[in-house]
Amino acid sequence: MILKQQNIMTKLKLFLLLFFFPTIIFAQNTTPLTNKSRSEIVKSISQLLLDNYVFSDTALKMSNCIKNKLKAGAYNKITDPVVFSDALTYDLHSVYFDKHMLVQYFPPENPTTIQNAVQTTNQEKEDPFRKIKEANFGLKKVEILNGNIGYIDIKNFWADTLYGKETVKAALQFISNTNALIIDIRNCGGGSQQTVAMICGYFLKNATHINDMFDRRTNTTTQDWTKPDTSFTKLNNIPLYILTSNKTFSAAEEFCYVLGTLKRATIIGETTGGGAHGTFSQEAWNGIFISIPYWRPTNPITKTNWEVVGVKPDIETTSDRALETAEMKIFETLLSKTSDATALFNLNWDIELLRAINNPVTIDEKTLAEYAGIYGERVFTLENGKLYYQRTGKPKFEMEPMSLTTMKGKGNTYFKIEFARNSSGKVDKINAYYQDNRKESSIRTE
Question: What is the per-residue pLDDT for 2?
Fold first, then answer.
């Protein structure tokens, strides 16, 4: 769902209802529909579409579709408002599959729903953005990965310029000294176009025209521009990678479409969901609401948008492999630009760790038993099918495989142990490699 900033306060309550309670099913306290009520619902939805839907010609086709269905008696046996809402959604989608358009039933007579989701509590009256704040404005995770790679997981673009900007700014400050940045929107369902423009402003040096927004209701077009934020100038040029999946939708798609079209980011993952339109929600009849797409963006470069077709990635891979692919791409780029021996060693070290994490191997217990033994002051023991390592005077580590002959301490990336066999096939030596480029070897003593 893409929300426009104007009138956001008045629309927020309904937005929270539709977002936080999207799968509520009301089987009790519902009044059965009649021929009259079904006719009123179809008439109301038809008029709302004709007055507001982003494509006027499509609105007419949708209106005719459900009116003809009603006239033909296709809805006569439906008395449950939930079932009727689903049927209307299905029929509207049969004309044009606009994923932002949805008919749902929220009965006014259900006191729990009204109290919790529509009629604001005292807390919500004091702070209408409470639920969005509790979701950290959609920012789920910020961290620095191996290789000094920044990573931000955005679940929703909910950071408005009044409240959420400082949260975004804190996240970007945290990763502002990294070698590259990965923004993960694989599970992002959308949010506000203003949030998209605000975040894009950190990565674009100059004010940039990113969309023309056509509003069907007013028959007007407005330009959407980024406003440069110079708080962290390094972000203007930081290598930027965006992860997508087929669940990436709406405002999240706008984010990668804008930066991808400008060649400012590399998109990695799956083609996105294909929802470009902005919506508002309106009660059509006694608890039956329709979410109506009423504006559409046009990119000034492509002269189109991502509606239906989605955003195609620059590097296509499955969603679950997107992060690994991005990390490896970053490492390959860094390697190609690095000549310093220490930096090269560190990069190769991190690449080996990455490959081990993303391509795990299993060492059978028989082989682990062959590795177990004493190698000078290093002791390896087999306990409950797992190999443990302890050096004299040091903590004991559980070991995990990097390859069939090399292991590292679990949760520890500082060292790795290679088990070496002699000409007769017996494990008689270990080589210990450290992240500071040291190597130590120990002969098996027992």
Answer: 60
Which amino acid type is present at position 166? Answer: E
CATH superfamily of 130-277+296-335: 2-enoyl-CoA Hydratase; Chain A, domain 1 (3.90.226.10)
Q: Where are the domains of the chain?
A: 2-123, 130-277+296-335, 365-443
* DSSP 8-state assignment for residue 55: S
pTM over 0.90: no
Residue 130 has pLDDT above 50, yes or no: yes
CB-based contact 330:266 (threshold 8 Å): no
- Nearest 5°: the CA angle 269, 2, 250 is 20
State how far the Cα of 4 lies from the Cα of 129, in Å rounded to an integer: 15
- Name the one residue in this structure whose structure tokens are 């006239």: 71
What is residue 446's predicted lDDT score, i.e. its pLDDT? 86
Q: How far is CA 224 from CA 209, 255, 256, in A?
A: 6, 13, 16
Query: Which is nearest to 112 in space by CA: 33, 31, 29?
Result: 29
Tell me how far apart the alpha carbons of residues 288 and 84 are, in angstroms, rounded to a whole number. Answer: 10
Quickly state the pLDDT bin for 124 (edges 50, 70, 90): low
